[in-house]
């Protein structure tokens, strides 16, 4: 599976908003966008005003970077969302939120989506009692997500969980049992429960060109 393994702080600077790709660092004085609030590169401070296409492209790139997926997988997810009834943009975001790595992030076990993806890939996450190491797995209503017993006493996991509310990632569509280290998917996330600054209509317009 292809993955981007380079620097990620420049992504926030390029999009002009905090994408929260590095957990607690994004809330500290070390945050790159707080220190240099302009796009990276030699001409970052002198870029021309974006065209309509440019705005649509930037919004698509922003969504991809938030969820940590590359173009081919993102396009596939969009096509599946376009086949569903209702608003395509909202269906797209709901599909991305229901990915297993995103669910683990919303539970609070990972400080970032990339850390949550690592927990899944390394076999530390169980779905309905069975180990599952596929980050892109699409969770369903009533799925029970739990973490392996050997990590339940991990200071890193416990610290991430305590900080989850501060990061604003706890979601109403999950029923979290913090004492037993598990969560149940109660519902498909609606747009008002998806707390990211995205204009999904621009992504739909881009793929409709």
Can you put this structure into words, describing what you see?
This protein has 209 residues and is α+β, with helices and mostly antiparallel strands. Helices cover 42% and strands 8% of the residues. It contains nine helices and five strands, in the order H-H-H-H-H-H-H-E-E-E-H-E-E-H. It has helices at residues 9-15, 32-35, 52-67, 71-82, 88-97, 100-107, 113-121, 155-167, 200-207, and strands at 125-127, 130-131, 144-147, 174-177, 182-185. Strands 2-1-3-5-4 form a five-stranded antiparallel sheet. A hairpin with a 2-residue loop joins strand 1 and strand 2 (130-131). Helix 5 (88-97) crosses helix 9.
In brief, what are we looking at here?
The chain is α+β, with helices and mostly antiparallel strands and 209 residues long.
Helix content: 40-55%
Class derived from helix and strand content: alpha+beta
The rounded Rg comes to 17 Å
Q: Give the uncertain stretches in residue-range form.
A: none
> What is the straight-line distance between the termini?
29 Å
Largest beta-sheet characterization? 5 strands, antiparallel
What share of residues are in beta strands? 5-15%
Helical run tally: 9
> What spatial form do the alpha-carbon principal axes imply?
globular
What strand order characterises the main sheet?
2-1-3-5-4
How is this fold's topology laid out?
Blueprint: H1 9-15, H2 32-35, H3 52-67, H4 71-82, H5 88-97, H6 100-107, H7 113-121, E1 125-127, E2 130-131, E3 144-147, H8 155-167, E4 174-177, E5 182-185, H9 200-207
Antiparallel strand pairs: 1-2, 1-3, 3-5, 4-5
Helix pairs in contact: 3-9, 4-5, 5-9, 6-7
């Amino acid at each position: 599976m292809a993955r981007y393994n380079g620097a990620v702080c420049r992504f926030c600077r390029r999009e002009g908003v905090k994408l929260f790709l590095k957990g607690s660092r994004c809330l500290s004085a070390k945050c790159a966008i707080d220190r240099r609030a302009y796009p990276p590169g030699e001409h970052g401070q002198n870029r021309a005003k974006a065209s309509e296409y440019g705005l649509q492209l930037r919004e698509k790139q922003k969504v991809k970077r938030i969820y940590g997926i590359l173009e081919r997988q993102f396009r596939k997810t969009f096509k599946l969302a376009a086949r569903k009834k209702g608003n395509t943009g909202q269906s797209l975001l709901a599909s991305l939120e229901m990915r297993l790595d995103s669910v683990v992030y919303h539970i609070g076990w990972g400080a970032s989506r990339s850390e949550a993806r690592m927990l899944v890939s390394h076999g530390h996450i169980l779905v309905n009692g069975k180990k599952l190491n596929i980050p892109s797995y699409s969770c369903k209503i009533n799925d029970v997500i739990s973490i392996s017993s050997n990590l339940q006493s991990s200071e890193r996991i416990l610290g991430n969980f305590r900080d989850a509310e501060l990061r604003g990632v706890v979601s109403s569509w999950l029923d979290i049992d913090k004492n037993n280290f598990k969560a149940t998917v109660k519902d498909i996330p609606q747009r008002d429960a998806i707390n990211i600054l995205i204009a999904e209509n621009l992504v739909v317009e881009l793929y409709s060109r």
